[in-house]
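Q: I have two molecules that I believe assemble together. Could you output structure tokens for the complex as a whole instead of separate predictions?
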Amino acid sequence: MIRKLGYCCVLILVLTGCETYTTFYKETARLSSATVKRAQRLDLRQEATDSMLKLVPKFENLRSLNLTARSASEIDTVLKLVARPELLRVLILDSTNLKQLPESIRRFSNLKQLALNHTPHLDFQTAFYTLEGLPLVFLNLQHNQLTVVPEGIGKLKHLTDLNLSHNQLTTGFFRLQAIPRLKSLWLTANALEVLPEPLFQLKTLKNLYIEHNSLSHIPEGITALKKVWVIHAGHNAFTELPEAFSKMNCLLLLHINDCPIARIPESYLHKDSKVAGLLLDNNQLSEKAKRYWRKTFQHFFILSL
Amino acid sequence: MADDFKVYAINFYNFTDNLNKLLVIPKSYTYILALYIAFTGGVVAQSFKVNGGVTASVAIVLGNQNQTLKGNIAAIGALRYGEAALESGLSFSLGQLLKRHTVKTKGAFYAYDFFTLLGVGKNDNLLGAALIDITPTFSFNPNTSGTFTGVGFGFQKEILPNALSVFNNRRGKLLLRFANAQHSIAVTFFNDLRFGRLFYGEGTDYGSTGALKVSYTEIVARNEIYSAGVGLELFTPKQDYTRTPDNGLNSDDGRKNVWHTLAPHECLFYTNLYAFGAYQNTFYNTAAKVGINSEKMGAFVQNTLHDGSGLNPRFPWDVTAKDKLFFEVEGALLYTKSNDD
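A: Yes, here they are, computed for all two components at once.
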């Protein structure tokens, strides 16, 4: 039994390794007949339209395709031309003037990652309906001037990682509760002054990134996030290390650099505090306080004050 | 007799304090080490079996990543009471650096390495010396026939000059050793993180961090020994904790957090997967390592660890870089002294 489990682990590692190597570790090719046979990552940002139409159908091993800054019609045409759409894992459609996602995107039946950064004109609600059924695990929606979490995001049932950084989100966070497997959420640089209560209902969340906001306080409600074990909360307005973090069920690692933090509450000494890694660079702790906490936290697996 | 014990106890505590100050190590280790030294000093009853050895050497290391001239002294001792065994080793190196971690630099450096194993069996061959990483030299005892299985912890630290001093992080070691008569297999897992009270890394997650070394050592004659094995070691520059980890390199097209790294060594990455061998007789020791330096492999190994735990951001490995050759040869002139009670 143990031997079989061992074989399974090795097999999974090898297969995962192959997938990683082919999708992410290969050189990203430009459009040319010389790269047609071996290219698995293709960047079409600066290619002539005629060349794209002529050569794209000849690429038969594409895992990653970058169509940043292309027009809506070019994107639709190229997506229709990809020879083996079932192989594609990553699609990058940043900085476009898309208003609707083309239906042709549904050809990519194994698409795992989609980037839609800098596409502020896109109708996201309709886009999510278009993407429904695709096995997307990561969606990148940075720099889209979003003020509300778009309706329909719960249609993406496979999503585990969602990046909503560099928007101006203030409401609609309850819609994230409809994503059943969400593990990592980026809300970096959203001008948040307080963490929205609906976030505390994200029961599957493990990693929360809330840097570069205007947070000065963390509500006790965050303790409802029973699975979160990493929080990045640097570049905020905290004047003391938020006590609520020390009461979280399994928060292990806290990055909270570049704030005006001058005090660490005694609650971090309590045996119920699970925090075992702390990065507090560029805060306003006195040298005496740093010496004290370095000694107190000397058993932490990672520590930087 | 009672007075003797009282004097011994006072000296013991003074000794552990001094040792603690000298090596900057946790007290749990100093007590173990002091106990070991006290026992090997003959303070205990005759039912204990004690072996020990000291090796002094002068060595030159030449390779495409490291070039040094150094003097080294290493001591190893094994103590057993019936089938219960304790083995400890301590090594200290001091030398002149020409090149380290691929960076050419001149200046003095020093390093220390310590380990302790606890186990069962008749541990007399002293081949735990293979668990000392800063030098490949051995003290050994060929007159053994027992078996031994041990597990333990250790740590090592290197103090480098100039701009490389940022990488003076201490690494903890988790150790396994299996021995039978003149043969020994040793496994060492290194990391600079801290786990509990015994895995005693610096807690920095940069520089020389994770590594794995598996070696086979055999005493082939009364004064001859060889060792062979494989190793994997990773090196990364220091991450910039003050910047949001949004580096695009090695980010899986934006999905993963990736650190930015600090100058002047922001691009200093390597991952060596290598085979090594060493031969030693009464007068000299030679050792060699050869393998590949692959950023792609380093990214894969470290990404798997970082993503798997989900704790820390990745490092910006250049995953498209071509693999390079890694090689290193070392020659040492020896002076060895050992005893077998």
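A: One point stands out. The longest helix of chain A spans residues 2-24.
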